[in-house]
Amino acid sequence: MLDTQIRKMSVNKEVKRVTTHTLQSMKDNGEKISMLTSYDYSLATIVDDAGIDVILVGDSASNVMAGHETTLPITLDQMIYHAQSVVRAAKRCLVVVDIPFGSYQGNSRVALDSAIRIMKESGAHAVKVEGGEEIKDSVIRILSAGIPVMGHLGLTPQSIYKFGTYTVRAKENAEAEKLKEDAKLLEQIGCFAIVLEKIPATLAKEVAASVSIPVIGIGAGGDVDGQVLVLHDMLGINNEFSPRFLRKYLNLYEMINGAVKQYINDVKSNDFPNDKEQY
Ligand code: KIV
Questions:
Q1: Between 20 and 30 A from 64 (CA), which of 37, 57, 100, 126?
Q2: Spacing, Cα 13 to ligand 1 middle (Å)
Q3: With contact defined as beta carbons under 8 Å apart, do 183 and 132 qualify?
Q4: Is residue 197 annotated as part of the catalytic site, yes or no?
């Protein structure tokens, strides 16, 4: 990937693409990295136009787009479909795609095939995987093909049936020590960044200070190099999900619900369409 890759847009504006190297410079210069999820063309267009640094095509699509209870059911084909839609929209930001459960663990050849499919078929710029030491071989093999890899430690939702709950991880010493070692390992083998999800802020701060690559937090406090949220959560689309770390910037559930009710009312009362809204 070229650091200075320039894309000519149809409106003839030159846009400098955010790359993994840009993120590294941001960490080095103390500039915070902004990251949000997106799964479709329309919302990704708005998010990219707003100036986000990174769009994550997260496997949280399994929850927010498909309505599954966990991230486990989403398939590689479905992730590629979401990634293709986002890549069509993203003119400036770096697009990172989650490799879904079952497509990289335990077999580095399968991991490489999955990562290559994502890169080739969607045009995304990097992949993300969950775990440390246990997926080391897969990460090394993906990296060997020149594919940038983002790690993900702490609460790793693909392991929900091992954890049993979505509560804060690494509160105990042993788990915190393993997480610190895993972060060092991911840095050492060549990951370009690490997501830390739902761990104590003091631990996240320590990890961010101990590695040279960017550490992006979700529910991991402010002393890391950037923040990520699930777009649908921060827009308030799902009003049942309100963990402590989530800041809701809109209540889109209420707004959309209100607009739909108004539309129903307008149709039933014959107010819509009016004379100007027809041919
Ligand atoms: O899938 C996802 O949305 C994620 C973020 C929570 C980091 O992995």
A1: 126
A2: 31
A3: yes
A4: yes
First to last CA, the chain: 50
Q: Please report how many Cα atoms fall inside a 13 Å half-sphere around the Cα of residue 232, on the Cβ side.
A: 20
DSSP 247: P
Q: Is 69 helix (H, G, I), strand (E, B) or coil?
A: coil
Atom of ligand 1 nearest to the CA of 216: 7
Distance CA 127, CA 124 (A): 8
Asked if residue 23 and residue 90 are part of one domain, the reply reads yes
Ligand 1 centroid, distance to 141 Cα (angstroms):
23
Decide: 195 in ligand 1 pocket, CB within 6 A: yes
Residue 233 Cβ < 6 Å to ligand 1: no
Residue 72's Cβ-count burial label (10 Å; 0-12, 13-18, 19+) is middle
Encode pLDDT of 159-216 as tens digits.
Answer: 999 999 999 999 999 999 999 999 999 999 999 999 999 999 999 999 999 999 999 9
Q: At residue 28, what are phi and psi to the nearest 5 degrees? A: -60, -30
Number of structural domains the chain divides into? 2
CATH of the domain at 77: 3.20.20.60
Clarify whether residues 237 and 210 are in a common domain. Answer: yes
Which domain covers residue 257, as residue numbers? Answer: 251-279
Residue 266's φ and ψ, nearest 5 degrees, are -65, -40
Which atom of ligand 1 is closest in space to residue 230's alpha carbon?
A: 3
The label of the residue with tokens 């989403």 reads 74
- Are both 146 and 258 inside the same structural domain? no
pTM of structure: 0.95
